[in-house]
Amino acid sequence: MHPVTVRYDVQRARAAGLSTAWVESPYAVARRTQQRICQETLDFGMPDPVLQEQHGVGRRSLLSPEHRALLLTWTAADPQFPAIEALRRLTSRHQYHGGKTAVYDFLQRHRPPQPPPLPVIRFEGLPGEFGQHDYGEYAGRSGDGTGERFHFYAGRLKYSRVIHVERIAAENTEALIRGREGLAAIAGGLPLQNGVDNTKAAVVRRTRDPHPRAETIGLQTHCASFLRAAGVHADPAAPYSGKQKGSVEHLVGFVKAGFFARREFHSRADLERQLADWEQWVNTERPCDATHEIPIRRLERERERLHPVPGQAAGRGDYGLVYTVVGGREGVVRFQGNRYSIPAAWIGQPVTVHLHRRHVRLVGAAAACEHPRLSGTGQESLLTTHWEARFVKRRGKIRAKREILIPVGGPAVGAFFTELVHRRPESGATRDLPGLWTLFARHGAGAFAAAASTCLEQQTIGAERVEAYLAAAPTTALPAGVIRHRRPGPPAPGAAAGPGGDR
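-> structure tokens emitted (503 positions)
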């Protein structure tokens, strides 16, 4: 079937007096077909589907006039009436046995026209008024050719266009808070309104009251506490409304195109170094395309309106996310898959955990202690001040001291104690271990580990041998604490796995 444009050209050519032979050459329309086309009534601009419907092209639709009337009634009452619901009603209630295509095509042609979209209003923020925060993800390759996926935080002040980008391990609440702290460290604080995507790291629920048509937004607990402590507010974007945060969306694309896509990284440390240099260049040397000014110069007019984050205001460094746990009977608290030692008086009592970027602060009954933050899982941090609580019972005292000496000294000390147990099964725990502990407390972890390693190589096992080696070594102070792995590492190549566990 010839399209409407060709049929219209045929009608014009024949009306101008051109012969059927001439028309057949450029338009490839037979003479008898030309006669039929000249008898048709064609409106200028008529679409091809309308012409096909007039000619009855294709299989006859199973939509009866009654079915068509029902569809028109439903769409008149609700212009957004779902097509799948219309098909379900026709099939189950009105004996329609056709396919879905006929129903969908009819609804597409006869729905009321959609209202025109509202115009997009872009605005510029005032000094210290708006800031935007978001996550980004980029899949690239390292210098050795291996593929790697990078997650990063991107933040920008609306007025000065100062940006901050940092690599993150996961797109969670702590990464959002640490990113905001990084932006505040560069700019001197956070703005009054902080826009963020509709992510679970910031927004946990949205409830709408149908009568006043008011929406209540429930912020994530730690995110809300951080903003409250800083004296600023959150401005979450509406779901499926990316244009509400266009500036930061452009920032994510700008970081991908201007940094990740143009550079090669040999390691994560190299990536972070190059990212810091690039961020410094964007903020202090490159004029912004939107303002035609260098961001750091506009920041001078905005800095006095920014709010310092909690750690900056109190001079404590970074903000600590607050959790509550209970002290265990083993003198530790379990948190994020790791164990941290506590005083004996905290056993069975609630303990508040302040999670910082590089350390963990525990607050209990009128006291506090601080541990290095452990990465991964299956590790334990044991502070020196908490050792004595483990040396109360006689058997526990012996085992607890050995459990401290092995992770401090490393594999050589562990092998030394293995030889000691098998060579002196009776006196090793009662006589040798107390002496070894005294030597460790007197000379320090480094000298003790070196002495145990030397004795192991010479196969001279015993506390008196270690003491003879350390006779000329200087005395040092004990470490602040030890970190030991609770779970056994992978077996050595070729080693057979034993039937027992780690206990």
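The first strand starts at residue 130 and ends at 141.
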